[in-house]
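COURSE: Structural Biology Practicum
ASSIGNMENT: Worksheet 4, Part C
STUDENT ID: 0417
INSTRUCTIONS: Below are two proteins. For each, the amino acid sequence is given first, followed by its structure token string. Answer the questions at the end about the second protein only.

PROTEIN I
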Amino acid sequence: MIDFNTDIFGTAAPVSPEIMMGANTETIDPMELECPEPGVYYDVPAHVYHSWAAVSSTLLKAYAKLPSTARTPYVPGDDANVGSGIHAYSLQGEKGLREECLFLPATCEGKSAKAIAEREMIQMSNPGKALLPPVYGPQKVVTMEVLKGVDASLQSHPKIGPVLETSRKEVSVVWIDEETGCICKARFDIWDGSVLWDLKKCRSIDGFQWQIKDLGYMIQAGFYYDGALANNLPAVGFGFIPMEAFPPYQVACGYVEPEKLEAARMDARRLLGLVKESQMNDYWPNFPPPSHIFSWEDLTPDDLVNVY
């Protein structure tokens, strides 16, 4: 048995093939562990999943942008919190929304010192919960109406609606990367038995391709796909479901091309190796890793010269 409380970067004892395959996870309560054994876990609350000590796609995406900031605690703003609210409501219903989110009072609106202090006090009293603003967006729509509007668009979509109705939702997985020994985790919004789907709140459907690149979504896709394969899930594809959180709440869906998905999986594994190397050498540079290097030892000064 591995002591998962030691180090997410692989200093624990070797893992047996049985554990690597996710065996015997039915006897484990994942909500009582710092990080459960490798395997597939259903119905784990989001705040419990986020507390598991393991490498996540959030860390890899931050590392790809700037390693020096990758370990900085992430503090979500209104945009991210409303995204969490959409996830909770559309994937888990009102029960999930109550468990994972909290609607802020009107006195928390704005950026005054008093409003910020009140938000901080509420967050301290409700750790792990997404704080939803009373109203959201330029049109100041009541946030609950935003959640209902996006959900109605998802449910009525000819492709997305049936997928939501018949698929497993909020599937959490843990695995150990064979090359680095790192303990990894991922949380699939939707798994329909073959495709991993991820909900993404976006600025616009038309500009979603730009958002994929700017926010590192392909790193997440490759990392999640790798986690599915490591747990022997029959995942053959990955898809995004972009959503506009403002009227008329347009939604769309699209698959990642197989060749691009495999390339993203290899890139995620490359980044995982660099993260492990940074952890071992306490080297967190203040510039992004060039896309072609697999070790910081391979870096040359010219690798950091941009072409404009």
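PROTEIN II
(use this one for the questions)
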Amino acid sequence: MLFFAFLLLAQPAPIGPPSATQRPSLTAEGPAGWREDFDGLWRHRDESGAEKKLEQTLQQILAVDPRSFEANWRLAALYNWEADAKETDEKAALGKKAWEAADKAVAANAGDVHGHYNAAVGIGLYSEGVGIITALSQGLEGKFRDRILAALRIDKDYLNGAPQVVWGRYFFKLPWPKRDVDQATKVLSEAVRAHPENLRAKIYLADCYADGDKVDEGTKLVQQVLNAPPGDDPPEERRMKKKARNWIDAHGPPNTAQ
């Protein structure tokens, strides 16, 4: 789902502990430049070893300031990114860690979208991991709605409309009788209209079309994902293009008959 548009930086050097004479003094915000370093590496987070380096950076900050808003929301975003590629127990465990870190960010700055959004995504991923029915039995629907609705109120256009995409996907993923594909289609159509560069929104809307026996319409959207030029978040784009190829494999190639 996430979370992420940062300036393109050169391939960062491996993160390692500075020597005693080089180690900068820590403040409440952490060592100077850590956010810029993190955000630069974030653009390479799907490369070997990057996720581990990103977490190490954040854990160093949180060891000094456990309530750090900037570190906690980034940690939640990292766990959500990792959970999105996992299944069952691993997905649930990472989603829960994301939710917990994001709630700490909300406690530090309730007026910012980052914490609410990442907490909602974490709850959603946890729910997918344990199973939606189990999550509903644990009373998580209200917790999810509180956080995603807060994100929508604060900034519905954050990350190219990411809160809208999560909100639309929520209606699609619910089990009967709560499931509402029409509402999912409505929300996701608006997200795609307002943010045509959001590849995840297009894939999720394609799922809605396929569910309604409109596979050709869904395929057109998925082809847009496959043909999309490079954007602001290369790892997310690579992941979405892979999902798009899987979608085509599952639903068949485009219908080119006249």
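ANSWER KEY EXCERPT:
Q1: Residues 34-155 form a domain with the Serine Threonine Protein Phosphatase 5, Tetratricopeptide repeat fold (CATH 1.25.40).
Q2: The radius of gyration is 19 Å.
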